[in-house]
Design brief:
This protein is of the alpha+beta class. The chain contains 4 helices and 4 strands, in the order ααβαβαββ. The termini are far apart.
Length: about 130
């Protein structure tokens, strides 16, 4: 027995119309995080930050995010006018660097890597 295809071409046009409507007023930027945060920080801004995991800094390419960027990011976030939510892996170094902010534990499952899914601990860091 075979199951139906997960992709239904007859639904593409309505999906694209929905996406177009939702993104009509969205600005997409490709900037270094410091520039982006400084440009858009306002008292009413909420940033969602998803930097590379600790010990995975090079996963997105060489020189894009380095270990020292965690401390630079923490310093930048301390001076925000707006607010932020950030997710990172749960390691002692992350807890230490971002310890001035509210930290909540969250369980997740890593499924991107090859092999079986892996249970993992994440941190949801919020501020100010």
């Amino acid at each position: 027995m075979t199951s139906p295809a997960r992709f239904d071409v007859s639904k593409v046009i309505p999906m694209l119309e929905d996406v177009h409507a939702r993104l009509a007023s969205v600005t997409v930027e490709c900037l270094p995080y410091q520039t982006f945060i400084e440009r858009y920080d306002r008292p009413y801004t909420l940033f969602y930050l998803d930097p590379p995991y600790w010990a995975c800094e090079g996963d997105y390419g060489p020189g894009l995010f380095e270990r020292a960027d965690f401390e630079r990011l923490e310093s930048l976030l301390r001076g925000l006018s707006g607010r932020f939510i950030m997710s990172l892996n749960d390691v002692p170094e992350v807890r230490e660097i971002f310890g001035a902010f509210r930290i909540e534990e969250a369980g997740t499952t890593y499924s991107v890597h090859k092999g079986p899914q892996k249970k993992a601990a994440e941190l949801i860091i919020q501020g100010p």
